[in-house]
Every structure is written in C-alpha cells, then in structure tokens.
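Our preliminary data section would be incomplete without showing what the modeling component actually yields. Below, a chain of 149 amino acids is followed by its predicted structure, encoded as tokens that our downstream tools consume directly.
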Amino acid sequence: MTVGIFRNHLASEVLDITGELRLTAAQLHGDEPPQVTAAVAAGVETVIKVVAAGSRAVHCIDEHAADIIMVDSPDPGSGVPFDWSLVGNLVTEHKILLAGGLRPNNVAEAIRRVQPWGVDVASGVEDAPAHKDPRAIARFVTEARAAAN
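Predicted structure:
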C-alpha cells in the first residue's frame, strides 16, 4: 500500500496528488469534515482518517467514510504514548491503526491491550530526529508480530 499523508487539503487536491503519484491510500491527518473524507473515498482505494485519542473527533468518526481509523496521540509526533484505554470500543467497530509513542519496548503490550488492526511508528524507531535505526525497526516488527500471534 502506498500512502500519501495529507493535512487539511481540499478533496480535489488529495485526488489530484494520489492520482498523479498512483497512491493506493490517503491518510487524512487534519480537521477534514466528513464531506472531504467521502469525496476522497470516492476516488482513492483506501482512506485512513486520523483522530486524536480522547478528542471530540473520536465520537464523530462514524460520519467519515474511512476504511481505517488511526488513533494517534493528542500531541501527534511527540513520541509520547497516550492512555490506550481511550481507544475504547472503536476497535470492535472499525479497523484501528494505533499510533502515538509506540516503540519496540511497548508495541507488544499495546497490541495485546488494544488489539488494533495495525500499528504505526515513526519517531519510536529513530536514533536521531528523522533518522530511522534499522535495528529498532527490526525489533519493532519482531515484537509486533509476536504479540499479534
């Protein structure tokens, strides 16, 4: 799956970019209204809508035409885990992609507790800002796979 990440773009912009780059998914990481999500979903194979854990947006997620819901930290990009209980029953109603503060040393516990469809990691496998550590990535994947079995 090739994913473009967008924040508060017009649906037409998302569709133009995903079409031009032949992306198979669009991750909407902003305050897009349900109409934008629906318009993007009409032209992109998979739509991932991102919501902050504990936010009002979580309670309105059913209004969006998203295939996957990413639940992220209230402070995205901070690398700080949030209270995973905030995911609540979303996991029984949607494909949940868990993000926010995941690292090799906590991803297995997060998977066991939340039982998400998938997990997302960025800063949790870096050895310096914006520099991924291949060993940390491998350990993250190993831990995630072991917890999912």
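The mean pLDDT is 94. The chain has one domain: 3-148. Preliminary results of this kind motivate Aim 1 of the renewal.
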